[in-house]
Amino acid sequence: MLIVENVDLHYGAAIALRQVSLTAEVGAVTCLLGRNGVGKTSLLRAIVGAHPITSGSIKWEGEEITRLPTYERARRGIAWVPQGRDVFPLLTVRENLETGFAVLPRAERKVPDEIFDLFPVLKTMLRRRGGDLSGGQQQQLAIARALIMRPRLIVLDEPTEGIQPSIIKDIGRVISLLRGRGEMAILLVEQYFDFAQELADTIVVMDRGDVVLSGRREELDEADVRRRLSV
User: Fold this and answer.
1) Whole-prediction pTM value?
2) Contact by Cβ (8 Å): 154, 79
3) Would you call 191 helix, strand, or coil by DSSP?
4) pLDDT of 72 higher than 90
5) How far apart are CA 156 and CA 163, in angstroms?
6) Distances (CA, A) of 17 to 48, 200, 221
């Protein structure tokens, strides 16, 4: 389980997170919702070690990881799919996938066939450069690259952003499949309630750096959640 407790985070004098707490369990999807600029990505950056927190605690599988650098968190099974995908545009699809090998023992450094079962389009594009792929194809590549790491926690930052509906359905199918296997925790950041509602076991809603609503999906009032997401 991921346990985030009372986390504050600053950018200089500006506070981005105030006393934020959440959990993410193996075998479940935790959806973090909120409008633009409320601190969702800042929280993900804190969890993966891309930005230090001011105070609070982050624990993963019983270990305090609050001060660990990003690469050490990756070695402990935490994979991050950032907003905007961040594939390497000049590397081929195969080379992008192979960057996920960095945290694996040498004997395990191979792309499993399962990756192409999940994302068949990538198998036909192994020699194409990442920058030549469509936005939806790049998103699939970014998720596949994270899965190469054999993660126990995968953190997805708005995977539906700017993606055509058919690929959104494919991504939802993959997330649902991964959850069903019961081998990893999934923390999903979204703006769109319908996509989140279909996948989430737990929903956490943020506003202006605070958690304003949290609970099991079936326990929360849908109208209340939607109201907090409306502009």
Assistant:
1) 0.93
2) yes
3) coil
4) yes
5) 14
6) 15, 23, 24
